[in-house]
Amino acid sequence: MSPALALLARDLRLARRAPQDALTIVVFFVLAAILFPFGIGPEPALLARVAAGVIWVTALLATLLGLERLFRADHEDGSLDLVVLSPAPLELLVLAKCAAHWLVTGLPLIVVSPLLAAMLNLPAAALPTLIASLALGTPALSLVGAIGAALTLGARRGGALLPLLVLPHFIPILIFAVAAVEAGAAGLAVRPHLLLLGALLAFALPVAAFAASAALRQAAQ
Predict the structure, then answer these.
(1) Each residue's pLDDT expressed in tens, for the chain with a length of 221 residues
(2) What is the C-alpha separation between 177 and 81, in angstroms, rounded?
(3) What φ, ψ does residue 111 adopt, rounded to 5°?
(4) Alpha carbons 119 and 102: distance in angstroms, whole number
(5) Distance CA 54, CA 52 (A)
(6) How far apart are the C-alpha atoms of 151 and 145, rounded to whole Å?
C-alpha cells in the first residue's frame, strides 16, 4: 500500500500547489447551477422539481473538467513511465490517482452542494439523500472517467474525445442518483436507489483499475 499512498500524497501536494484547478471546478459547478433559474424561471415549485437533476448534471460536467489532467501531466513529464514500471501493482496505483482526483474534485462538490440545494429550493428532507448520492456517485464518476482519460492519453484532440467516451457511461449513475434524491424529496424509500449506486461504485472499482491500467501500459509503450 505504501507506493499507492505515496502517489496519492504526491498528487494531493501537486493539487495544493495549484489550487486554481480545484477552484475552477467548484466555480463552474456553482455558476452552471445558477444559470438554470435564469433559464427556466425563479418559480420555487419548478426549481424544486428540477433541483436534483440540475445539481447532478452540473456535478457530472464539473467532474469532466479535471479528467483530462488525470494522467496527462504524468505522461508529459515522463513520470507515468515510472508509475507503469513500478514494482507495485499498477491497478493499485491507478486507484490511488482516482482517489486523489475525487478528493480534489468530487469532495469539494459535495461540500458546496447544500448551498446549491438551498438556492434551487430542494426540500430539506432530500438534502441527506443528495449528499449520500454524491458521496456514492462522484467516486464512480472519477473511476469511469479514469478509463476514458487513459484511453485518450496521447491521442490527438483527446480532450474533445474524452467526453464522448465517458458521458454515455455516466448515464446510469445519473439516473439512480437523481431518482434517489427525488424519492427523498417525495418521502419515499431511498435505500434501493442508494444500494444501486453503491453497486455501480463496487463494479467500477475493479473495472476501472484493470481497464485503465491496460490503457496506460499501451500508452507507455
Answers:
(1) 588 898 899 889 988 888 888 899 999 999 999 998 888 888 888 889 999 999 999 999 999 888 888 888 788 777 888 888 888 898 999 999 999 999 999 999 999 999 999 999 999 999 999 999 999 999 999 999 999 988 888 767 666 788 888 999 999 999 999 999 999 999 899 999 999 999 999 999 999 999 999 988 887 77
(2) 37
(3) -65, -40
(4) 24
(5) 6
(6) 10
And the C-alpha cell for 182?
Answer: 427525488
Provide the b/e sequence for 145-154 (b: ≥16 CB within 10 Å). bbbbbbbbbe
Nearest to 133 by CA among 60, 64, 49, 187: 60
| Grid coordinates given for 14 | 501537486
Range of the domain at 133: 2-220
Helices (H), 120-190: 127-151, 158-186
- Residue 184: partners with Cβ closer than 8 Å, 6 or more residues away: 123, 125, 126, 128, 129, 130, 190
CA dihedral over 44, 46, 50, 55, signed as positive or negative: negative
Residues 183/52, Cβ–Cβ less than 8 Å: no
Domain tally for the chain?
1
The closest alpha carbon to 169, from 215, 114, 122, 211, belongs to: 211
Question: Over the stretch 101-122, which tens digit does the pLDDT of each residue have?
Answer: 999 999 999 999 999 999 999 9
For the segment 141-158, what is each residue's pLDDT rounded down to a tens digit? 999 999 998 888 876 766
d(CA 208, CA 205): 6
Q: What predicted TM-score, i.e. pTM, was given to this entire model? A: 0.91
